[in-house]
Task: inverse folding
């Protein structure tokens, strides 16, 4: 992208109807490491590839719990994500204090969308350079929402954002029919496989660079229909999930490597 006369602020349209500052913010999302989200009838899963800035630094958090019924995965500028996450936590706490109930999932997603869209209409502000996948549960079941820097939000059946996410999206599209009736463990395996598809062939998923977040409802037993609190698997907790995914792949389940070569550089 090149500098032009219409990208000095986020309130000026180009003659083609484009707002370049918003497009630049969307490019910032593509510079982040990939995150994947998918949803079934009973659960929503977030899977993320963590990245460290240098060998001496720790890995950056990519999946974060906002409330018992709500979690978020981020791709892009972590500092911008922190501002939005703090806002979501404030709104969630306010709902509990005022109404005595968790904040409705769609409402909090629309609120961060409104907050981001306002930045495209006020001079001196800039769009948030981060994309979010928001997974949560309400009275109708689990849901997955995507937030983009323009302020647009939409509910998704499955989604992948961040750098090199095209191959993950290809995997999700290919297996979309399997997600609706998938169990909790099957959904996690699909998420990890989609994440693996986005990586170069010389890299592997490890307990250091992988995070998994799961939320949903109890599928059977006396607590059937009750909400399972958002559970984050990080560090050593991810190990059994990675082993289960690798074992099922080695057992002969359909592989998705063949579409690999041409699209790996789409948004790297």
Result:
């Amino acid at each position: 992208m090149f500098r032009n006369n219409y990208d000095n602020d986020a309130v000026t349209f180009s003659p083609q109807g484009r707002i370049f500052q918003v497009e630049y913010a969307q490019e910032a999302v593509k510079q982040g490491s990939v995150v994947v989200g998918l949803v079934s009838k009973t659960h929503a899963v977030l899977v993320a590839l963590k990245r460290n800035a240098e060998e001496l630094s720790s890995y950056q958090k990519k999946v974060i719990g906002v409330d018992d019924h709500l979690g978020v995965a981020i791709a892009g500028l972590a500092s911008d994500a922190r501002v939005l996450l703090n806002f979501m936590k404030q709104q969630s706490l306010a709902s509990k204090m005022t109404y005595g109930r968790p904040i409705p999932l769609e409402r909090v997603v629309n609120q961060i969308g409104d907050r981001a869209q306002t930045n495209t209409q006020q001079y001196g502000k800039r769009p948030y350079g981060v994309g979010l996948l928001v997974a949560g549960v309400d009275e109708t079941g689990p849901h997955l929402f995507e937030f983009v820097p323009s302020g647009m939000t939409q509910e998704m059946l499955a989604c992948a954002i961040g750098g090199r996410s095209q191959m993950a999206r290809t995997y999700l599209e290919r297996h979309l029919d399997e997600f609706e009736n998938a169990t909790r463990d099957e959904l996690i395996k699909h998420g990890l496989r989609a994440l693996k598809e986005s990586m170069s062939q010389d890299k592997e998923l490890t307990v250091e660079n992988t995070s998994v977040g799961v939320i949903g409802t109890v599928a059977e037993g006396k607590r059937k229909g009750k909400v399972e609190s958002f559970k984050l698997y990080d560090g050593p907790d991810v190990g059994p999930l990675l082993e289960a995914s690798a074992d099922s792949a080695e057992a002969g389940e359909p592989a998705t490597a063949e579409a690999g070569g041409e699209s790996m550089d789409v948004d790297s």
